[in-house]
């Protein structure tokens, strides 16, 4: 029988390393990181105007709404709208593309005080759906780009195949919520791998053994310097990278660490005990 994912999440910052785990859970995704973004309108091969919006870093449910608008001399006109309810996620809205060039842009809001506006672009389509050349309008101050469908995993040369697969799958989950990819840092990989090895040697899953260093001290011992925020996930008994990442994503505290967009570095470690039980560790750092 597969052992359950341990309900262990530990995080902190340089100013609050002694925060109890229960309190740290609530601090894993501060409200000031909650944001929405929306891409500039683009034309799909099927002849549709498409925009994609995301809500990320949030810890409350909200209604995410996107509107595709046409820029006019008078009041701008809403041509298409879509909405979804949830905590974090992605929403795509499409509109039929016509042959007459028009200027389009998109707005997104979550009715929780978060809103964003895309770059305005001038688009048109031929009868086959192929975009016709048209000059783009002046971009807004903060344009956003449409997420790619397959995120890369920077630092693939770091760690074992299983550890790099954990990083790759973690980055896929982050992309779904609008977060950037995590870089697999060699020193953080060492910190995570060494902690998994210690857990495996003692056949015990924990963030800190009695009398031993906490996870930030272990990160420092691995040679990592700097950093403004830290977090750690551990698990035992999951046989594959896919199953352990899926298990973490189903647990609120672990998921908040994975989906916290302020983190940009990761270390992933996996070591099996003498009895064959896999022990997994993820450490996250914002730098």
If you consult CATH, what is the topology of the largest domain?
Pathogenesis-related Protein p14a
The CATH H-level superfamily of the largest domain is CAP
How would you describe the shape?
elongated
Helix/strand/pairing category: alpha+beta
Q: Which strand-content bin applies to the residues?
A: 25-35%
CATH class of the largest domain: Alpha Beta
Mean pLDDT: 79
Number of DSSP E strands: 14
Which ranges are low-confidence, i.e. pLDDT below 50, for 5 or more consecutive residues? 10-32, 127-156
- Euclidean distance between termini CA atoms: 39 Å
Q: Write the CATH architecture name of the largest domain.
A: 3-Layer(aba) Sandwich
Rg (CA only)? 22 Å
For the record, the count of structural domains works out to 2
**Percent helix:** 10-25%
Q: Main beta sheet, described?
A: 5 strands, mixed
Strand order of the largest sheet: 1-12-14-13-11
Count of alpha/pi helices: 6
Order of helices and strands: EHEEEEEEEEEHEHHEHHEE
Domain SCP: 168-284
Pfam families: CAP
InterPro entries: CAP_dom, CAP_sf
Biased composition (Low complexity): 126-161
Break the fold down into its secondary structure elements and pairings.
Elements: E1 9-12, H1 21-26, E2 35-38, E3 42-43, E4 48-56, E5 62-70, E6 77-86, E7 89-96, E8 102-109, E9 115-117, E10 121-123, H2 161-176, E11 183-184, H3 186-202, H4 215-221, E12 229-236, H5 241-249, H6 252-258, E13 265-272, E14 278-286
Parallel strand pairs: 11-13
Antiparallel strand pairs: 1-12, 2-4, 3-4, 4-7, 5-6, 5-8, 8-9, 8-10, 12-14, 13-14
Helix pairs in contact: 2-5, 3-4
Biased composition (Low complexity): 126-161
Domain SCP: 168-284
Signal peptide: 1-23
């Amino acid at each position: 029988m597969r052992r359950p994912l341990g309900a262990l999440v530990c995080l902190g910052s340089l100013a609050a390393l002694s925060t109890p785990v229960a309190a740290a859970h609530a601090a894993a995704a501060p409200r000031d990181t909650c944001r929405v973004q929306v891409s500039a309108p683009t034309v799909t091969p099927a002849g549709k105007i498409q925009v994609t919006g995301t809500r990320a870093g949030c810890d409350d449910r909200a209604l995410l709404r996107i509107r595709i608008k046409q820029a006019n001399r008078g009041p701008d006109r809403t041509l298409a709208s879509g909405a979804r309810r949830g905590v974090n996620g992605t929403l795509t809205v499409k509109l039929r593309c016509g042959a007459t060039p028009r200027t389009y842009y998109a707005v997104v809001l979550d009715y929780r005080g978060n809103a964003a506006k895309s770059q305005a672009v001038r688009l048109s389509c031929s009868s086959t759906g192929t975009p016709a050349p048209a000059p783009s309008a002046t971009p807004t101050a903060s344009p956003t780009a449409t997420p790619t469908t397959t995120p890369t995993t920077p630092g693939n040369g770091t760690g074992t195949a299983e550890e790099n697969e954990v990083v790759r799958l973690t980055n896929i989950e982050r992309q779904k919520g609008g977060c950037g990819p995590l870089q697999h840092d060699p020193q953080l990989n060492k910190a995570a791998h060494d902690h998994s090895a210690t857990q495996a040697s003692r056949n015990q899953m924990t963030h800190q053994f009695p009398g031993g260093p906490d996870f930030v001290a272990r990160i420092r011992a691995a040679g990592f310097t700097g950093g403004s925020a830290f977090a750690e996930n551990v698990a035992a008994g999951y046989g594959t990278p896919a199953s352990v990442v899926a298990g973490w994503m189903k647990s609120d505290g672990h998921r908040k660490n994975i989906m916290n967009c302020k983190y940009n570095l990761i270390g992933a470690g996996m070591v099996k005990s003498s009895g064959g039980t896999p022990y997994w560790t993820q450490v996250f750092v914002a730098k």
